[in-house]
Structure formats: C-alpha cells, structure tokens
Automatic annotation (TrEMBL):
A 50S ribosomal subunit assembly protein with GTPase activity, required for 50S subunit assembly at low temperatures, may also play a role in translation. Binds GTP and analogs. Binds the 70S ribosome between the 30S and 50S subunits, in a similar position as ribosome-bound EF-G; it contacts a number of ribosomal proteins, both rRNAs and the A-site tRNA. It comes from Thetidibacter halocola. This is Large ribosomal subunit assembly factor BipA. Monomer. Keywords: Cytoplasm, GTP-binding, Hydrolase, Nucleotide-binding, Ribosome biogenesis, RNA-binding, rRNA-binding, tRNA-binding. Belongs to the TRAFAC class translation factor GTPase superfamily. Classic translation factor GTPase family. BipA subfamily. NCBIfam families: small_GTP, TypA_BipA. Pfam families: BipA_C, EFG_C, GTP_EFTU, GTP_EFTU_D2. It comes from the Bacteria. It is found in: Cytoplasm. The keyword Nucleotide-binding applies. GO terms for cellular component: cytosol; ribonucleoprotein complex. It catalyses: GTP + H2O = GDP + phosphate + H(+). Its EC number is 3.6.5.-.
C-alpha cells in the first residue's frame, strides 16, 4: 500500500484535534453507527478538561488506496519537546492557522524545527467561516514567517487550502463548493513525498525510538518510524544509545501499528511505517532499535534545553498525609525519574538532603500538568517558586529571553506595554492593529519577568487579553526584577477558620480560605492590601454576652474567596513561600516551619 507520514502542527486552540476528528470520520475509520467522542485524539483526562493537546499521538487513515499516518502534536510551547521528536518520524507537515489570528508563537517555534529538517509544509487556513476571519492577511503572514525562518524556494512555494475543521470541509478557493475534506486528502497524497525509507527494505533493521508508552499487559512500548529493513515478531534485536553503547538485547514480543484510533497487532514492520515494539526492559526514547549486525546508532534530533527549574519536596506541613497515600521522598523520586524517562524535555536532579528534587522543564504549564497528574495519582508535594536557569559564558551571565505575543483591546495596550517594558525589563519589538479595536504587541521579555505576570495581565486587561510566549534565545542578564508587590495574610493559629474572623479580616485584603477550612500557623490565608506580610488570627470568634442590642446579631456576609489554579499558585508565591499540593487541596504557606514546630502543630490539629 502507498504510504504517507504527516504531522499536523498549530497553535493552541486553532482546531487541529477537531480537524483530525473529521479526517477520521470522512476516511471511514469509524462505523456509520459508532458513537465517537468529540476531540477523539485527546484521550488524556487533563487534555479534555483543559481543551489542549499535551501528548503527541499517532493515528492512521486510508484514502483511495493510500495509508496516511497522521501525528497530532501539542499546541503549547511548554510541550515542544514532544514536537521536536515527532518531526523526525514524518515526511511533511500540515500547518494549521486560524484565519483570524494568523501565525502565533507556537506556530513559529514548531515551523522553524520543521523547515530546518527540510519538510515541505501545507498551509490550511482554518475557521474561515468566522465573522472576524481575514484569510488573505493570515496567508501573507505565513509567507513572511517562512521567509524569516530561512525557508528554501521549494518550502516557500507552499500550497494552501481554506477550511473549517468543525464543519468538515476544505477547499482550494475561499468561495468554493465546501463539500468535504477530499481536497486536503488529495493534497497530502500529492504534495507529501512517500517515505524514502521504502527504498531501504533489504537492509538491516533500524528504528529510532521517539515516544515511550506502557501497556499493563504488554509492558514497555517504544514507537518510531522504521528507517530501514523489515522486522518480524519473535526476532532478536538490540538497543543502542545515542553514543553507540549497547543497552540490551531482546526478543520482539509484539509489533503494533496504528489503524484508525486503535493499535492493531501486525506480523511484520516495514521500512517507512510508524510502529510500536514491545519486549524491551531498558531501551528508551532516542535509542536506536536495530538488528544485531548494526553497530552505529541513528542520529537523534537535538532537544532544546529546559528554561526553568522547580523544587519538588515532601509535604512537611501539619496536615501532611491526610489526603494522599504517596508521601515519602523515595516514592516521589521514583515517579519523577519515570516521567523524565518518557519526557525528554524534563531533567531531574537530587538535592543534597535527598528529600527534595530539582525538576527542570520548559515552563509553568508543563510543571503544572506534571504536578496535577501526580496529585491525581495520590501524591502529596510541596512546590517552590519557579527559578530561571541561567547560563555562564565567556560574555558573562546569560538568561533565557521569551518572545511574547499579546492581543489586547486598544484601551489596555498602554498599561500592558508599561508593565512589560518597565519593571519586567522587556523590549518592544512590534506593535500593530490586529482587528477592530484590538492591538497586537510583540516583545522580548526575560523569562524571570514573566513568572507570575499572567494573573496581573488578566487584571490589567479585565480578562480580555490573550498572552502567548515562546523561547526566543539567550541574552546578557538584565539585573534585578521585582516580584509580587502585595504582601500576604498569614495564620498565627491552628484549627478551623471562623466566618466572623474572616469577615473582620476582609478589610485587610482578599481571602483564600473559607469558614470551617483547616488552617495552621504559617499558612497563607489571603493577600494583604499592602506590600508587607501580616500575621492574623482567623480563629477569633465573636464574644458572647447575655445582652441583646440591635445590630449585634447581623448575619455575616463574606465576599467569595479567590481560588487559585495550580499554575496560578506556583506563579504567585515568593521565594520564601511554598505551594502545598494534595489530592484534595492546594494551599500556600511560608517556608519557616522547623521540625519541632511541625510536630507540636500536628498534635494540636
């Protein structure tokens, strides 16, 4: 069968997973009466809840005698490590661009990787049926983007389609017939070359592992594209590391290929196809699985380095162990190293004491997703404020710089520019209109300046602004950047918070806790209205007397509390504060608890 391998890349919420749904339906991958969930490729619970793709996933469709292997890639820069590996498996990319927003930072980031590998893009202008769509402008911006990324003449001569993924059509003309996605299928078959590996069918077997999975019945599963040769079930192969060191020799127990959304067992893997192998115990991502006669590994795609680090520690608060079952540092360590094995964009380092671990990654969202997965598995953790990874060079200390793209209402653009280019040491690169009453601002800002800024940004823009960021490069250290301006309200007692006390404290700032919620000494229960920290007593009840007077028995009416998401909490804290994460709660607290104080408080609670 004729074969094509293609990846779909796009910015967050530009509709690539919805488009893949329609490709699956129109190719006949589902039965006519089969119930299919919306965004079928987003199989992970967090992906469905947040509406973003986190893990790259493969699927396969057949169209008029051609099998098309499609890879759905993450749309957020924090998960770019997934995309960088996946691109080595495909021979072409479909670049999906929102016709209203145009190319966004993540589009630029991934496209630069694809163009560097020599892949020829197909541009699909999605959501052209939206009232604010400007497909011609978006198409011009795509061409400018490719030119800025040093695309060659073949890549600049890219075909394009107009489409609506939700409505299930694509067309070569903006006012065409709009029937179905056949024009996209046809363009993929005609424009994307067949895998060149097919010519190497008679050579020794070689495959580069790009993703790692696990099956409760089969065990470890490594997925990749077969670079040369054929492989049958039961054959004995070896795994080589990046430097050519032999890791293990094993017998292949299963070969699986993607057919629709299912993995099907096949007897033989052929060059050019994307398959999963089982049977190994040590081999991992970026290793070469090959015949015993091969002694040189395949070249693995380099991965961009992490830019921030967060310290994961045991939960040592007085409320530790009440929600979660996995609280020991040994269990946390095993889970983190297991994550680093499958996610090459994450690096783990033990701290000298052995009770905390420095986890380095791409951004706050990537860390937030890892922590959220761990708390759902029953872990309890204490998380530090993210720290930016600095680099020492001959030119001095260098720090990571991010390109920030902001779409904001004209009324708020002044406040945003002042914040970004002032205290946060950013440099304005571009500012232009981006629609009726909207302004697009592009700036280069130190990563340090963006930690904790998103909440402030939403306040400044009354929740209407959209901020996207992507790693830009390294630049000389820009000096101190001020952190959070407001102080916090810290509990000075242990027990259950009282409504009357919280009501009296409301004039001091906004609250993070509700009545009857457990609090302890050192726990942050609110944000102070001034810039200093303040110790308060949230347990102080109303004094009872036998004298009745008008006004003394008024009902206590509390302002609704501010509940932070995990990412907001991590970005909110200062260096002397921690986020306490359990399966049922996210709390903030000060660091200064000593062991004797913790023991005493545990007894009182």
């Amino acid at each position: 069968m004729d074969l094509r391998n293609v990846a779909i890349i796009a910015h967050v919420d530009h509709g690539k997973t919805t488009l893949v749904d329609e490709l699956l339906k129109q190719s006949g991958a589902f039965r006519a009466n089969q119930a299919v969930a919306e965004r079928a490729m987003d199989s992970n619970d967090l992906e469905r809840e947040r509406g973003i793709t986190i893990l790259a996933k493969c699927t396969s469709v057949e169209w008029k005698g051609t099998r098309i292997n499609i890879v759905d890639t993450p749309g957020h820069a924090d998960f770019g490590g997934e995309v960088e590996r996946i691109l080595s498996m495909v021979d072409g990319v479909v670049l999906l661009v929102d016709a209203a927003e145009g190319p966004m930072p993540q589009t630029k980031f991934v496209t630069s990787k694809a163009l560097a590998l020599g892949l020829r893009p197909i541009v699909v202008l999605n959501k052209v049926d939206k009232p604010d769509a400007e497909p011609d402008r978006a198409l011009d911006e795509c061409f400018d983007l490719f030119a800025n990324l040093d695309a060659d003449e073949d890549q600049l001569d890219f075909p394009h389609l107009y489409a609506s993924g939700r409505a299930g059509w694509a067309d070569t003309e903006l006012d065409g017939s709009r029937k179905n996605l056949d024009p996209l299928f046809k363009l993929i078959v005609n424009h994307v070359p067949a895998p060149k590996q097919i010519k190497h069918q008679n050579e020794d077997f070689r495959m580069l592992a790009t993703t790692l999975g696990a099956d409760p019945f089969v065990g470890r599963l490594l997925t990749g594209r077969v670079e040369s040769g054929k492989l049958k079930v039961g054959a004995t192969v070896q795994a080589l590391s990046r430097i050519g060191q032999k890791i293990e020799q094993f017998r292949v127990t299963k070969i699986q290929a993607f057919r629709g959304l299912q993995m099907r067992d096949i007897e033989e893997a052929q060059a050019g196809d994307i398959v999963s192998l089982a049977g190994m115990s040590k081999a991992t991502v970026a290793d070469t699985i090959c015949a015993l006669a091969v002694d040189k590994p395949l070249k693995a795609q380099p991965i961009d380095p992490p830019t921030i680090t967060v310290t994961f520690g045991i939960n040592d608060s007085p409320l530790a162990g009440r929600d979660g079952k996995k609280v020991q540092s040994r269990v946390i360590r095993d889970r983190l190293y297991k994550e680093a094995e499958s996610n090459v964009a994450i690096k783990i380092k033990d701290t000298p004491g052995g009770e905390a671990f420095e986890v380095s990654g791409r951004g706050e969202l990537q860390m937030g997703v890892l922590i959220e997965n761990m708390r759902r598995e029953g872990f309890e953790l204490s998380i530090s404020r993210p720290q930016v990874i600095l680099k020492e060079t001959d030119e001095g200390m260098m720090e990571p710089i991010e390109e920030v793209t902001i779409d904001v209402d004209d009324d708020y653009s002044g406040a945003v520019i002042e914040k970004v280019t002032g205290a946060r040491k950013g440099e304005l690169v571009e500012m232009r209109p981006s629609g009726v009453g909207k302004t697009r601002i592009i700036a280069h800002v130190p990563s340090r300046g963006l930690i904790g800024y998103h909440g402030e940004f939403l306040t400044d823009t009354r929740g209407t602004g959209v901020l996207n960021r992507v790693f830009h490069g390294w630049a000389p250290h820009k000096g101190p950047i001020p952190g959070r301006r407001a102080g916090v309200l810290i509990s000075m007692e242990n027990g259950e918070a009282v409504a009357y006390a919280l009501w009296n404290l409301e004039e001091r700032g906004r609250m993070f806790v509700e009545p009857q919620e457990q609090v302890y000494t050192g726990m942050i229960i609110g944000e102070h209205s001034r810039d200093n920290d303040l110790e308060v007593n949230p347990l102080k009840g109303k004094k009872l007397t036998n004298v009745r007077a008008s006004g003394t028995d008024e009902a206590v009416r509390l302002t609704p509390v501010s509940r932070m998401t995990l990412e907001q909490a991590i970005a909110y804290i200062n260096d002397d504060e921690l986020v306490e994460v359990t399966p049922n709660a996210i709390r903030l607290r000060k660091r200064y608890l000593d062991p004797h104080e913790r023991k005493r408080m545990s007894k009182s609670l």
